[in-house]
Amino acid sequence: MSTEDQIAPLSPKTSPATPTITPFTQRKESNSSSEDNRQDSWELVEDLQGLTENIQKPEKLEGLLLKKRKWPMKGWHKRYFLLERGILTYAKTGTDLKKGRLRGRIDVGLSVMAMKKKSMCIDLDTEDSIYHLKVLAKTRDLFEQWVTQLRHHRTFRQNEITMEPPELLLQSDPTANRREKLNTVNFLDLSECESALLELNLLLKNMEVLHRTFSAPAINLLQVGLFACVSLYLWIKYVFMFGLCTGNKFVYMLSCYWPKSTKPIMTQIFSTDQEVLVGSRPLRQQVSSESRGSIPESLSEFFDAKEYLLSGSSSENEASDDDSYVSDVSDSTSVEFCRNENGNGSNCAVMRRDRLPSTRMNESVNLWSILRSNIGKDLSKVAMPVQLNEPLNTLQRLCEEVEYCHLLDTAANTHDPHMRMVYIAAFAVSAYACSFTRAGGKPFNPILGETYECLRQDKGFRFIAEQVSHHPPVSACHCESKNYTFWQDVRWKNKFWGKSMEIVPMGVTHLELPGFGDRYEWSKVTSCIHNILSGQRWIEHYGEMSIKHSTTTGDVSHCKVTFLKSRSGALNANEVEGMVTDSNGRVIHSLFGKWNEALYLGKPPSATCIWRANPMPEDHEQYYGFTQFAIELNELEEGLKALLPLTDTRFRPDQRLLEEGDIAGAEEQKERIEVLQRERRRVLQENNMTHSPRFFKRAEDDSWVSNGTYWDLRKDPGFSKLEIPVLW
């Protein structure tokens, strides 16, 4: 039986295997030697394994509990909880709960549940969020009461899902709000729409073949007519059934099935139809400010539509009312890839590969057997099979963060300190864009002493990175150009919560703009990968990023960017909001957008695009979800081999074999390399020695900075003439 078969989530369209009720399974902290840790190990509630038709309805339970706040390290707050029929709802107070002013709703039957007895903690991991709960009055009896009732309600709810048909489940849940009803209806109904659109798309592709063969006229008009009729009918139906904000989301879903040739005019049709239905005001102003669901599923779709209409207009008067939508960022990716980012206009002659040697090989891995004993633990020390990796490592991932370095070049040539901060903030947000399509794999962990260099004359920078510590794992990098210097050292704490894995980064990112005497510092936000065990994995980032600014001349500017946590239904997925303030705290600029798409300056409708993510390669899903920039990072050009130190990641055999599609060979080499690393560590310990990084050193603030020797040694005498440790 595959991993998916063992742990497939329950849904209205699936019928699970016959379940039986199993007690808590206790998992010990294997690496701990203290008695306290053994007594306070996580206990996991297993899924049902058998079926019982006569499970008695459990009693309601309500009261105050402590709930951990959304962002890490922000403490706990009181919330009033009600547990009824396997559904746990909560509000700020009991009065709010009775009035229906809910803060959240958790289906206990579809959640992974774990607890720690000594600290009296309860964790519920849903597909959308991780809920950390504590008993308010730390009494053992109250804790046991909540645990017992949660177990009973969980069993009852799972049995209810198993026994009742989907339509009765909807009727039996009176607390389901409008959005949840929409998601269920979408789940049941939209599959039919999707099927119809796919058939229509296939039909039109066949017609396009005939058009190319026989030069049939007016094919585009036929395409527009067919898609407009079907799409408009379905869209208007959903607008009136569920509201405008859902209509925007549904438009984006429909647009995925429009042929490219029809998209411009289809966008214009929907824009006109929108004005007829709801008036001429922008979409964002139609829904109350309390719900940001009015932001379309794709901000780029919304603004690109306006930009297209402007560029297609021959009348200056027609565009004058909406010229504030025009982006100052070029849509031409050829300029990004081939033009010198320092602004001298010279063309880059370097030809780089546009795809990996092999597509991703799909081989089943029983991930649950690896992770089930590590609930709540740091996964950085847990060995994972190579099938879960992507053919890049963490040092190269750090290099991906400077893909949009042209924003730093722009900042370095901007005299207004507050606008400089806008571009710095856009650069900090852009570092997350590449992660959107990468939830399916993890980067290789670097070996202690492993290095990576990236010399990009087309982008005007040179980058080095080194693994400077193994326990704890710390990666340091340094990137420089004539306009800026960028460096950071990062380590991550990974925790698995049953369905999701939380990644909490530690360390500070530094940036200097020597032309203005500016220095900037910020820390990364928390990341979370959902559906680790089954279903489509997806990643979100949440928390507050505070960019601190110090300068030797001029005014000081500060910026705070908030990465919003996705709400139920993903109406605000991937959204960010920010503001730039002066030294007195006065707001100078406002920012909004999505970390995977674009960032805008100002407020709609008069907003300007500051940054937009580069388009993805057409077949990126088959190649680990890599961007074009990521595809180039592990390329080992023939002329580069003699210049690199043998510690460079490009020479690492397990990563290279995975890139070439040889999973068995990659696994064998990965195990061999890990054995060599453990042996080197043993020798150091036996001789009371510690590892000293080759190209980085400790700074006074305890961060890791470049020692300035890499590029000099590369030039003279060259790494081939130096003694280099053997890592693999």
Question: How would the blueprint of this fold be written?
Answer:
Elements: H1 3-7, E1 24-26, H2 35-39, E2 42-45, E3 61-68, E4 76-84, E5 87-91, H3 94-98, E6 104-107, E7 112-116, E8 121-125, E9 130-135, H4 140-163, H5 166-171, H6 178-214, H7 219-242, H8 244-255, H9 263-278, H10 299-311, H11 316-320, H12 333-338, H13 367-371, E10 389-393, H14 394-400, H15 406-412, H16 417-430, E11 442-444, E12 451-456, E13 461-469, E14 474-480, E15 485-496, E16 501-506, E17 509-513, E18 518-522, E19 526-530, E20 538-551, E21 557-563, E22 575-582, E23 587-594, E24 598-603, E25 606-612, H17 628-633, H18 653-659, H19 663-686, E26 696-698, E27 704-706, H20 710-715
Keywords: Cell membrane, Cell projection, Cytoplasm, Endoplasmic reticulum, Lipid transport, Lipid-binding, Membrane, Nucleus, Phosphoprotein, Transport
Membrane topology: Peripheral membrane protein
Organism: Cyprinus carpio
